[in-house]
Design brief:
The structure is a single chain. A hairpin with a 5-residue loop joins strand 3 and strand 4. It is elongated and about 65 Å long. It has about 80 residues and is of the alpha+beta class. The chain is built from two helices and four strands; from the N terminus they run E-E-E-E-H-H. InterPro entries: Ribosomal_bL28/bL31-like_sf, Ribosomal_bL31, Ribosomal_bL31_B, Ribosomal_bL31_sf. One of its GO terms (cellular component) is ribosome. This is Large ribosomal subunit protein bL31B. Keywords: Ribonucleoprotein, Ribosomal protein.
């Protein structure tokens, strides 16, 4: 890597306040706010709006759309179009 052009890479806590979930990882993101982590060290904290603890796909609350049923319902409602 070329020296002097890359941002600093260090430990950061990402916190999802909606799910009361936080995790420590390494990132180039920075923050003026800090938090004391479980190991007793102080790290910068970045608040995120959604994480694996609150995203519907990861929590199992995602709904699967029934596309075949929707097409059939549309055809029942409006009829099958004629080919042009």
């Amino acid at each position: 890597m070329k020296p002097g052009i890359h941002p600093s890479y260090g430990p950061v806590v990402f916190r999802d306040k909606a799910a009361d979930f936080a995790f420590l990882t390494r990132s180039t993101m920075t923050s003026d706010r800090t938090v004391t982590w479980e190991d007793g060290n102080t790290y910068p904290v970045v608040d995120v709006e959604i994480s694996s603890a609150s995203h519907p796909f990861y929590t199992g609350t995602a709904r699967v759309m029934d596309t075949a049923g929707r097409v059939e319902r549309f055809e029942r409602r409006y009829g099958r179009g004629e080919a042009r």
